[in-house]
What does this fold into?
Amino acid sequence: MLPEMPHLVLLVEDDDQIAAPLIRTLEREGYEVERVDAGLPAVDRVVATGVDLVLLDLGLPDIDGLEVCRRIRAAGYTGGVLILTARGGELDRVVGLDVGADDYLAKPFGLAELLARTRALLRRSAPARAEAPVAVGPTPAPVPSAPAPAPDATDLRVDADARRVWVGATELVVTAKEFDVLALLDSNPGAVFTRERVMDEVWDENWFGSTKTLDTTIGRLRQKLEDSGTSARVVTVRGVGFRLEGGRPDA
Ligand code: CA
It folds into this structure.
């Protein structure tokens, strides 16, 4: 393991009364915290050099939190996004909209709960910042290496340790939750994983939200697989769950 670098959490919250205790709590836990109080600066900040986790309020003075989430995902951000939302109707509406958030926390929430979700998301999205486009001096020239056996352009390879996905020689960019779902299905290709099992393993036991999140995550993953040209498919087994088909050298 490399020496632990503090995780960088970006708090996007326009209300000082809410932001102050969150910042104190997160800093006390050893996180590096930056705060912005509007949506556009949040997008700029994430796109500039990446962060490890975004804690995202929905009601912001310029663009709303959902739009922030859409934009940073569209820009290729793969780190965690935890949306802070009101319980009840708003939560259902928000979860139903597929903006690419990883998790939702209903206000008012306890700080212990916030820290638990934060830890869980950081565990799952640790490589996000390391891969962000941080320019530090000239890029070293690629070292020529022996040509690797050319993978078939449609093969899918899930590297569970590095948390990266490859289709042929091209990396497929996925969010933390998309990765978790895909890695789980890929752990036993062809086998059916029940919805309950996927929910249990990918979302934590404190998850109170709708299982629509599972369906939207699967939907995004499917689209990415399809766009990538792999023959791998996430197949729905009606009334049961999902399985991964194809995408293998021998398939
Ligand atoms: Ca607000």
Remarks:
- The helical segments are 16-28, 39-49, 65-74, 89-96, 111-124, 176-186, 195-202, 212-228.
- The chain has eight helices and eleven strands.
- The CA atoms of residues 8 and 145 lie 34 Å apart.
- The two ends are 36 Å apart (CA to CA).
